[in-house]
Write a structure and sequence with these properties.
By secondary structure, the protein is mostly helical. It is 59% helix and 3% strand. It contains 14 helices and two strands. It has a two-stranded antiparallel ribbon. A hairpin with a 5-residue loop joins strand 1 and strand 2. The chain is globular and about 60 Å long. The N and C termini lie close together (8 Å).
Length: 293
């Protein structure tokens, strides 16, 4: 479903598009988190195959990690998280960046900042507004000219809340984050990810923070192996699909199903690659994009 196209056509009076959106609305369920104007985000449980969730759980249980894997993963995850933002440092230079703490180039500094941010989350017990501010300070140190919270409505998100509504949205975010609401942590992670990017609280660094707190949320939900997985590698390899899913999730029905589907597929593909390297017998890889269509 191309929400952007349907929303535009419906806004100009196209009855067929309006009917498709109305039929879609009947399939949606509200999430316990609201946008800046009080509208609940929604999703379509029927569009999330139970088999996909089962496959993810099964594969996670077969992943084996070590402390060495964790340290290497943090470095690689820092690299790929920065790569999504257009980093120019190459993977061949990665060892030099970490071992020699090379900071001459902006890309090198971005990688090291992300590494420091992950380490900060590993030792910090709180998850609140102060945590986000500290993350922003670490991530943007020496690589960002636009400092602090945004002061205008101009953002990369079409329907980002007005500045005056950010406090309300941040309260919504943390109540949802800490609440006992969505049982499946991967689905909740995707909703949290979208909402933070939708809020766009800072002038810069919002995408990096969203990806950091997404993985961190999974770890804090008991999925500790995510400290040794490089989920951002898979996101980087499917960057166009990632931004498309974000764009499609910003729609008139507040339906974040497109990003939930993308995130679940990304987790599945990442696990599959990890287990292949561990010589696990996985069976045939499933292309979930074809099933989602």
């Amino acid at each position: 479903m191309n929400y952007k196209e349907l929303d535009q056509k419906a806004a100009f009076g196209d009855e067929k598009s309006a009917m498709i959106l109305a039929e879609r609305a009947q399939k949606l369920e509200p999430l316990p988190i609201r946008d800046g104007l009080g509208n609940p985000l929604t999703w379509c449980p029927a569009d999330i195959p139970e088999r996909l969730l089962q496959e993810i759980d099964k594969m996670y249980g077969n992943i084996s990690v070590t402390d060495i894997d964790t340290e290497i993963s943090i470095e690689e995850e820092s690299f790929y998280r920065s790569r999504i933002e257009g980093l120019d440092t190459t993977q061949e230079e990665l060892s030099e960046v970490f071992r020699a703490k090379r900071t001459g180039a902006k890309g090198d500094k971005m990688v090291l900042n992300t590494y420091r941010a992950v380490k900060y989350l590993n030792v910090s017990q709180k998850r609140d507004m102060d945590t986000l501010v500290q993350l922003w300070n670490i991530l943007t140190d020496g690589v960002c000219d636009d400092s602090g919270f945004r002061t205008t409505e101009k953002t990369k998100m079409r329907h980002a809340p007005e500045v005056e509504l950010l406090d309300y949205c941040m309260k919504q975010f943390f109540e949802f984050y800490h609440g006992e609401n969505i049982k499946n942590p991967y689905i909740k992670m995707a909703a949290l990810h979208f909402y933070f990017v939708y809020m766009y609280p800072f002038r810069d660094g919002n995408g990096r923070i969203a990806r950091l707190i997404s993985t961190d949320f999974l770890i804090r939900s008991g999925l500790e192996n995510f400290s040794s997985l490089t989920l951002s590698k898979t996101v980087n390899e499917t960057k166009e699909a990632y931004y498309h899913a974000l764009d499609q999730s910003e729609n008139s029905l507040f339906d974040v199903t497109p990003l939930i589907q993308y995130m679940l597929k990304t987790v599945y593909d990442n696990f599959y690659e990890v287990l292949e390297k561990q010589n696990e017998n996985l069976g045939e890889h499933i292309n979930w994009d074809e099933i989602f269509e």
